[in-house]
Design brief:
This protein is mostly helical. The protein folds into 2 domains: 87 residues, Uncharacterised protein YqeY/AIM41, N-terminal domain (Hypothetical Protein Yqey, Chain: A, domain1), CATH 1.10.1510; 53 residues, Arc Repressor Mutant, subunit A. 75% of the residues lie in helices and 0% in strands. It is built from 7 helices and no strands. The longest helix is centred in the middle third of the chain and has 24 residues.
Length: 150
């Protein structure tokens, strides 16, 4: 079942349940999918493109929540985080901290990185291999830690 079909099914359920937070989040996803499909040449999105789109939406919600928290608006921050959770259910399972460490150590060995100067090489490989499985911030922080220990 493709992402658009899943979103439509969840959208119907959210309407029946009168779940406004889920409705807003799902409508945002549907809108982004439609925009991406119409701006593309062939009108279809690959699974990688769908995952990237979902990650972008989750990141936007988390950043908005941080801004609301910083400006003493916790009720709006909670709403953004709840929407992020709704969107995250369509993403593949995220790697645990241990799994992320192991994966990055393997990538460091593959690339042959020997110092923090090789961060660019490692990040390029890690970003492509771990796309959708971990956030960019988490990958970057873990790569820094591992390379600092070399």
């Amino acid at each position: 079942m493709n992402l658009e079909t899943q979103i439509m099914g969840q959208l119907k359920e959210a309407m029946k349940a009168k779940n406004t937070i889920a409705l807003e989040a799902l409508r945002a996803v549907k809108s982004e999918l439609l925009l991406a499909k119409t701006s593309g040449a062939n009108g279809e999105l690959s699974e990688d493109q769908e995952i990237a789109l979902l990650q972008k939406l989750v990141k936007q919600r988390k950043e908005a929540a941080e801004q609301f928290t910083a400006n003493a608006r916790p009720e709006l921050a909670e709403k953004e985080l709840a929407q992020a959770e709704v969107i995250q259910q369509f993403l593949p399972a995220q790697l645990s901290d241990e799994e992320l460490t192991t994966a990055i150590q393997e990538i460091v060995a593959e690339v042959g990185a020997t110092s923090p100067k090789d961060m660019g090489k490692v990040m390029g490989a890690a970003s492509s291999k771990l796309a959708g499985k971990a956030e960019g911030k988490a990958i970057s922080a873990k790569v820094k830690d591992i390379l600092a220990g070399l």
